[in-house]
Amino acid sequence: MLRLEAVDAGYGPVRVLRSVSFDVAAGEVHCLLGRNGAGKTTALRAIMGLLPLASGRIRFGGAEIGRLPPHRVPRLGIGYVPQGRRLFAELTVAQNLEIGRMARGAPARAVAAALDLFPRLADRLGQRAGTLSGGEQQMLAMARALCLEPRLLLLDEPTEGLQPSMIRAIRDAVAELKARGVGVLLVEQRIDAVLALADRATFLENGRCLGTLTAAELQAAPDLLRQRLGV
Amino acid sequence: MRAAGLHLGLVGLLLAAHFVLPAYHHGVLARVMVLAAYATGYNLLFGYTGLLSLGHAMFFAAGMYGAGLGVRFLALDPGLALLAGVAAGALLGLAVGLLALRTAGVAFMIVTLMFAQATHLGILLAGRWTRGDEGFVLQGPERVVLGLDLGDAAIRYLAAWALFSAVLLLVLRLVSLPAGRVLVAIRENEERARLLGYDTRAHKLRAVVLSAAIAAAAGAAYALLFGYVGATFASVQYSILPLLWVLLGGAGTVIGPFLGTLLMFYLIDTASGLTPAYMLVAGLALVLLTLFAPQGLAGEVRRRLAPWLP
Description:
By secondary structure, chain A is of the alpha/beta class. Chain A has helices at residues 40-47, 72-75, 93-103, 109-117, 119-122, 134-146, 164-179, 191-197, 215-220, 222-229; strands at residues 2-11, 14-24, 29-33, 53-60, 63-64, 78-81, 152-156, 183-187, 200-205, 208-214.
C-alpha cells in the first residue's frame, strides 16, 4: 500500500534520511524503530509531504505522492498523528472530530466509528480539547485522524508519557484498526508495545535503513530490539 | 441559540436606541456602528484566523475612495457606490492576499503595512482626483438614494445600524459554520490543519478577501453617511485602531469588536473633556484593562461566565 524507495530527505541542506526503503501493507502494523535522532519522525514528515525529497520515490496505492503538497496527502487516505498531539485546543471535542471528517468529505458515520474506538470521548463532546487529560488528548488526536477514514495511519509515539490504562486503550485501538484493515505505521520506543502489535519492524540508524524483521523474528530476538532501541 | 439571542438582542437594542438617545449620543453611536463593522471585519482575520494585519486601513480607504470617487466622477447613486467600494476593497484584498500570504507572522505584518503605506502614498500622489491630504466632501445631493438623504441624522443612524447588523450577523453565521471552524483550526495550528487535508492558503486567502470586503463596506458607508473622503483614513493610525478595538473588546469573539470600539470612543471622548492629555488617560485605561482582562471584555466574559459565547 505504502512504499518508500531509496528516499533521501532532510531539512534544507541537512540530509536526514539516506536511501530509506520499506513498505507497509494494508491491515499491517509496521513499526519504525531506532534511537533518538535516527530519522523516524523525519520519515513520517517526508511521507506527509512536509519535507521535500532530494531523491527517491514514495508511492501510495500505486500513485506517486512524494512531491504532493501536504494538504493533498491526507485526502488520498493517509492519517497522521504527530508527536505532541497538536489539537485545536480552543475547539470542542466534537468540533475537532468534525474538522477531521470534513477535510476529506467523509460521511457522518466516520465520527461514530472513531468514537466507537474511544468511547470515553463520547462523554466529552462539548468539552474544549485543551482541557482534556493527556491520554484523552491522544485519543482525540487519533480519533480526529480516523475521521478521515484513512487507509493508512501514521502514529508518532502515541503512548509517550501516558499512564498504563491509557496506553492499553491506545494499543487496543491500534489492534482494532488492524482488524478493520487499516494499515498502521507506528513509531514506538516501548519494546512491549512493539512485540505486542508489530507485524513487521524496520530499523533506522543515522537516517539509514538497517533492515526489516517480521514479528516472529522480533519475538526471537528481543535483545537485538533492546540494542537497536538503546533501552 | 443563546448566541443568536444575544446578538439579535444587541441588534434590537441598537435599533431601540435610535428612538431614545439624545442627539449627541445618537450621532456618536452611528459613527461607532460603522467603525465597529470595520473592526468586526478586522477581527475575522486577526481574531479568528490568527493573521495580524497592520495594513487594514488600505481596505477601509479602498471602500471609501471606491464609493467617493464613484459618486464624484461617475455620478453613481449611493447604492451602486457602496457596491463599487466593496468591490474595490475585495479586489485589493485579493491582490494583497495573493502576495502577503506567501509570508507569515511578523513578515505578514510588515508586508501588509508596506502595502497600506503604498496605498496611502498612492492616494496622496493622485491628488488630481483624490485632492490629496485635504480629501473632498460629498455634497448633499450626491448622498441621496431612493429619495432618502443619507446626511439626515435619522437616516444615517438607521443606515449605519443596517450595515453593522448585517456584518455582525454575517460573521456570527460564518463562525458557526464548518468554514469558520477551519479558520479557528488554522489559527490554532496551521500545520495540523494542513495535515488533515485543508488547503490552508486558500482558506486564508478567502478570509483576507472577506475581511477586506467588510472593511471596504465600512469605508464606503463612512464616506456616504458622513460625507467626507480623506487620506487620513488610509494612514497607519487607521490600521492600528481596529487592532486596539478588537483587543479591547475581545479578539475571536463576535461581539467584542463592537464593545471595544464603543468603549474606546467614549473613553477618549470623556478623557478629552477632562484634560488635554486625554490620550494618556485612554492609554492608562488600556493598560489596566490589558492587565486585568487580557482576553478583552467579551473574551473575559467567555472565560469566566459564558463559554458558549462565539
